[in-house]
UniProtKB/TrEMBL annotation:
Species assigned in the record: Acorus calamus (Sweet flag)
Family: Belongs to the class-II aminoacyl-tRNA synthetase family. Alax-L subfamily.
HAMAP family documented for this protein: Ala_tRNA_synth_B (MF_00036_B), Ala_tRNA_synth_plantC (MF_03134)
Quaternary structure note: Monomer.
Gene3D superfamilies linked: 2.40.30.130, 3.10.310.40, 3.30.54.20, 6.10.250.550, Bira Bifunctional Protein, Domain 2, Threonyl-trna Synthetase, Chain A, domain 2
Gene Ontology CC terms: chloroplast; cytosol; mitochondrion
Coiled coil feature spans: 814-848
Protein name as it appears in the record: Probable alanine--tRNA ligase, chloroplastic
Cross-referenced PANTHER family: ALANINE--TRNA LIGASE, CYTOPLASMIC, ALANYL-TRNA SYNTHETASE
Domain Alanyl-transfer RNA synthetases family profile per the UniProt entry, residue ranges: 82-805
């Protein structure tokens, strides 16, 4: 199930030197083991490896990273170690022979909306385990590709941390249970993989006597090697309630000579957990009690990379044949020998090996680089590889072009390592390579500038710290500048800073990020808050209690008033004011939904009896969860402590609810039509429309847009009742709620579900039933950034308004064109064709007229210089630019070579057109039309240029045209005279 725990990198003394070829390959460093097995055995193992790994054979005092502490005993593997492909195949064949259906690896983009990427082998079966879907087969086995990035900083630094890995699993859906799962796991491990039983330890849940008994009495594991462990380590749950059960794990012991006393299975230097068995046998009820499940399930996970490390006798997962060929290729590009380099360089090479597998498989599954969601994961990993490669001196792919990309070369190695289990990777080679090349070259454009700036920032931080006697710290503003302007992920900045001993002001960085998020979130006019210091606002005022999910009216107390950001006690009629209430039905702008509009009412006092009315036009949130009601005093006066009746504009609230629920339906429809790899990149829920930004690499086709509309309107017509719940975040994710990547959530979250269609974590307001939406229409679809597109749509009353307006436009067109609605398109096409014909005729007429006028101008040509260059510089009044060009071409063609023609005109008010045409004889003297006409255009307040023989320019000052042409005449005479003398 992918619950294998990461282990730390061990250290050990160096073994005797052996030839590099045998010291590091897909089998790793045998040390003394190599001497016992013998040369012949080593070469048999090496030659059997699918991917040869060769290094220069030369003597070196540099020692390879040792394996001495974590070594498999001699004879455990038979005559030859297994390749990664053999380990995978043996696992699947073993369970297939026991009635398991071999199913393909699910995509790294999961159907499960609760997770961003596929993180475990059991994920594709989760609906079955939770009872939401019927089982397809009683038992199954898979080799599942997985992505996890929560421990990305440890990649390359430890023996077994990865962003990409494969989880081998066998699953039972109400079929077999503990006895078979335990016995088969033992049989596979000891007989198929050949591990010595005395090297294997087992953990069981402390209260699972049944599993303990099976391991001890039926399998024969000695009680000294069975450890009872607590709930944190050996009990799996799907959430606070729901299916759950105890676990049992198998560990490999690298040091049995240490005996049985005081053993700790968490000791990474001695043990590695490689197989986890989950016995899903209970249902946890609301009161925490456990009741037996009617259908008991088995969910297991074996880490392929971990088993490869054990069977191939290497010190870490990276030096297995699953990853090491990538490291070898990176070493070749960096012109270093992995066997002889230092630990820091090895770490860099491991990072490259790991991340390249991740990005290749992610892109293969349709995840393209972007700044949000899954796309950000890919972009972050790619940029880490690029920067790491540059630290190693890799700047090209080895083809001699220093501007070339090197990621495609590494990607080819990753793709070559793919097997029939993931054959799609090879068929998508071109797309993968091209996307990596495009992303790398895009990043490199800003990387060098950003690196120089970062170096300067870090140097300044260190220098400042020395002067002040403090610890060096990079400001959050500078870190954000690197992120926002130069494309540096904050993780890369943090890594570089750490290398230089500099910390980062992450609190300020987060503030800058949030500021940018707010600024780019909405397209409508946002009233910027200016409320003085946070202490002025929040001192003594508790957070606002929001009542708006259930009510749009409430009684409230005024807790604070601010005018131009300053606290006041009283505000009179006609003034704008920010109002803080103890509780409110008004929704404050968040999650893309704009704030409510409405009114506050207060009864007059006994003395004057004047009523107070405040119009609310926006509601914002401030730190401390205070709702700031921005309004205008329409009548009376308002003071702190006043009791008011708060009333939300019901019509506008309904419009917002309709658009917000429609946004959820739109996201589900998008995933259904264009693929699950797309993800939300931003949204706006307004009263008059909705806007949804999403990641995708191309425009949607008309057919796709129509299908999206059809799906949304079908779901609206289904009249589905929405369900909303507040629950712990983990429970919400386990239940299937979409958690937006990069968003921060509290312990409790609100889940909005349209059963069978969508389930999202959302704090917005929504309709009760989809039928309230009434109708949905996409009004535009366009690209707004690289890999990000935007849909604008209307729903509910806005949909009715949109359709009515379009109907009126159509009626007006029908009346003007005197045709029926169905004939409008044909009639407009006919009119356009007629218009094109008339325009062409008019253009031809203008050109004929221009030529006619030009023929008259030909007589005004004068001769300059020894080469007898014929020159014409004239004003053609209101001749348009195209006709002016035609006239110039006619004249330079009519006059004998050499000839130079400069014409100008003012076709309309505030516009100047200029053109220069020089024959080959003039150009041959070094006089170029493009350079010449650009200088003349400046006199008319414009510019332009072109080729040596022909150029056009424009300007904005017709009053200067005659002066400019006179200047052209003078310069042309001077240039020709000088060049031809």
């Amino acid at each position: 199930m992918g619950a294998l725990k990461p282990l730390a990198l061990f250290s050990a003394p160096t073994k005797p030197s052996i030839p590099p070829l045998l010291r590091h390959h897909s089998l790793g460093y045998f040390g003394e083991e190599y001497m016992r097995i013998g040369m012949r055995r080593v070469f048999q193992v090496y030659l059997k490896s699918k991917h040869k790994v060769c290094f220069p054979v030369r003597n070196s005092s540099a020692s390879a990273q040792p394996v001495t502490e974590n070594m498999v005993e001699e004879g455990a593997l038979g005559e030859a170690a297994m390749s990664g492909e053999e380990i995978r195949r043996k696992f699947l064949d073993f369970y297939a022979s026991r009635g398991h259906k071999v199913l393909p690896s699910a995509s790294l983009v999961p159907d499960d909306p609760t997770v961003l990427l596929t993180i475990a082998g059991m994920l594709q079966f989760k609906p079955i385990f939770l009872g939401k879907e019927p089982r397809r087969v009683p038992r199954a086995t898979t080799s599942q590709r997985c992505i996890r990035t929560n421990d990305i900083i440890n990649v390359g630094r430890t023996a077994r941390h990865h962003t990409f890995f494969e989880m081998l699993g066998n699953f039972s859906f109400g079929d077999y249970f503990k006895r078979e799962a335990i016995k088969w796991a033992w049989e596979l491990t000891t007989q198929e993989y050949g591990l010595t039983p005395e090297r294997l330890w087992v953990s069981v849940f402390k209260d699972d006597d049944e599993a303990f008994s099976i391991w001890r009495d039926e399998v024969g594991v000695s009680v000294e090697r069975i450890k009872r462990m607590g709930e944190e380590d050996n009990f799996w749950t799907s959430g606070v309630t729901g299916p759950c059960g105890p676990c049992s794990e198998i560990y490999y012991d690298f040091h049995p000579e240490r005996g049985y006393l005081d053993t700790d299975l968490g000791d990474d230097s001695r043990f590695i957990e490689f197989y986890n068995l989950v016995f899903m046998q209970y249902n946890k009820k609301d009161d925490g009690s456990l009741e037996p499940l009617k259908q008991k399930n088995i969910d297991t996970g074996m880490g392929l990379e971990r088993m490869a490390q054990i069977l191939q006798k290497v010190p870490n997962n990276y030096e297995t044949d699953l990853i090491f060929p990538i490291i070898e290729k990176a070493s070749e590009l960096a012109m270093v020998s992995y066997t002889e380099t230092d630990d820091k360089t090895k770490t860099y090479l491991k990072v490259i090996g790991d991340h390249m597998r991740a990005v290749v498989y992610l892109i293969s599954d349709g995840v393209l680089p972007s700044n949000i969601g899954r796309g950000y994961v890919v972009r972050r990993l790619i940029r880490r590889v690029v920067r790491t490669g540059r630290l190693l001196g890799i700047k090209c792919g080895g083809e001699g072009n220093m501007q070339d990309a090197f990621l495609p070369v590494l990607a080819d190695t990753v793709i070559d390592l793919s097997t029939p289990i993931d054959s799609d990777v090879k068929t998508r080679r071109h797309r993968i390579v091209e996307e990596l090349k495009r992303e790398e070259l895009r990043f490199v454009q800003t990387l060098e500038r950003g690196e120089k700036l970062l170096d300067q920032f870090l140097a300044d931080a260190v220098s400042s710290a020395r002067s002040n006697g403090s610890d060096p710290c990079l400001s959050g503003e500078n870190a954000f500048l690197l992120y926002d302007t130069y494309g540096f992920p904050i993780e890369i900045t943090a890594e570089v800073a750490e290398e230089r001993g500099v910390s980062i002001d992450m609190e300020r960085f987060d503030i800058e990020m949030e500021k940018q998020r707010r600024q780019s979130q909405a397209a409508h006019n946002v009233v910027k808050l200016s409320i003085g210091s946070e202490s002025d606002l929040s001192t003594g005022i508790p957070e606002t209690k929001f009542l708006g999910y259930d009510d749009i009216f409430s009684s409230s107390t005024v807790k604070g008033l601010l005018v131009e950001g300053k606290p006041v006690m009283l505000v009179s009629e006609g003034n704008e004011v920010d109002i803080l209430l103890d509780r409110t039905p008004f929704y404050a702008e968040s999650g893309g939904q704009i704030g409510d509009h409405g009114f506050l009412y207060a009864a007059g006092d006994k003395e004057n009896g004047q009523k107070t009315i405040v119009e609310i036009k926006d509601v914002q949130k401030s730190p401390g969860n205070l709702f700031i009601h921005k309004g205008t005093i329409k009548e009376g006066a308002l003071q702190v402590g006043t009791e008011v009746d708060a009333a939300v504009d019901a019509n506008l609230r309904q419009r917002a609810k309709v658009h917000h629920t429609a946004t959820h339906l739109l996201q589900s429809a998008l995933k259904s039509v264009i693929g699950g790899e797309t993800s939300q990149a931003g949204s706006l829920v307004a009263f008059d429309r909705l806007r949804f930004d999403f990641t995708f690499h191309r425009p949607l086709s008309d057919t796709e847009v129509m299908e999206i509309e059809r799906l949304v309107n079908r779901w609206i017509g289904d009249a589905t009742q929405l369900q909303t719940k507040v629950m712990p975040l983990d429970d919400a994710k386990n239940a299937g709620a979409i958690a937006m990547f990069g968003e921060k959530y509290g312990e409790k979250v609100r889940v909005v579900e349209v059963p069978g269609v969508s389930m999202e974590l959302c704090g917005g307001t929504h309709v009760s039933n989809t039928s309230e939406i009434r109708g949905f229409k996409i009004i535009s679809e366009q690209g707004i950034a690289s890999g990000v597109r935007r849909i604008e749509a209307v729903a509910g009353e806005a949909f009715i308004d949109y359709i009515a307006a379009r109907d009126n436009y159509m009626k007006h067109l029908c009346s003007m064109l005197k045709v029926k609605a169905e004939d409008v398109t044909e009639r407009v096409e006919s009119l356009l064709e007629e218009l094109r014909t008339v325009r062409n005729e008019a253009s031809a007429t203008r050109e004929k007229l221009a030529i006619c006028r030009a023929s008259i101008l030909a007589s005004k040509a004068f001769i300059i210089g020894a080469s007898s260059v014929r020159v014409i510089v004239e004003n053609m009044d209101d001749t348009d630019a195209d006709s002016l060009r035609t006239a110039a071409e006619y004249l330079v063609g009519t006059l004998q070579d050499p000839a130079a023609v400069v014409l100008g005109s003012s076709p309309c008010e505030g516009k100047v057109s200029l053109v220069a045409a020089f024959s080959p004889g003039v150009v041959g003297h070094g006089i170029q039309a493009g350079k010449f006409i650009g200088g003349i255009a400046k006199f008319c307040g414009g510019g332009g240029g072109g080729k040596p023989n022909f150029a056009q320019a424009g300007g904005r000052k017709p009053e200067n045209l005659m002066g400019a042409l006179e200047k052209a005449r003078e310069q042309l005479i001077a240039s020709i005279s000088e060049k031809t003398s």
